[in-house]
Amino acid sequence: MRYHYEKPDISVPMYGENYYCEHHPVYFVCTLYKMGDVGLAVIQQKYRIDTKSTWWTRIDPDLRNSLYLNPGFLEYFKKMAGPCKNGCYPTVTIRQIMWALKMKPLKREVWETCFDHCPI
Fold this sequence. Notes:
By secondary structure, the protein is α+β, with helices and mostly antiparallel strands. It has one domain (17-100). The chain has helices at 61-68, 73-80, 94-100; strands spanning 17-20, 29-35, 38-48, 53-57, 82-83, 91-93.
């Protein structure tokens, strides 16, 4: 049996911030983890049932603390983060970072698309 990430009953996001990027071709808002002058943007795909459309946006609030408090986060951050270029930071999807940190994955939905290992 495969186990998936389960949302906590109560979650108050303390780490990461909403970052608005008007110049990125994939998303307008993301969750940004920043240390000094370098940052790492994390995005998650959402679905609107009435229009059957998807979009990339910030991650769910309950995931923000789980990522940051993961023992492997700092090493991953140092490897993937970078300075802001043209108003955008290096970006990964929630699935990419959860896979790299060996966290339980989110349940895969049929409408999801992915970037695999390519830069976003």
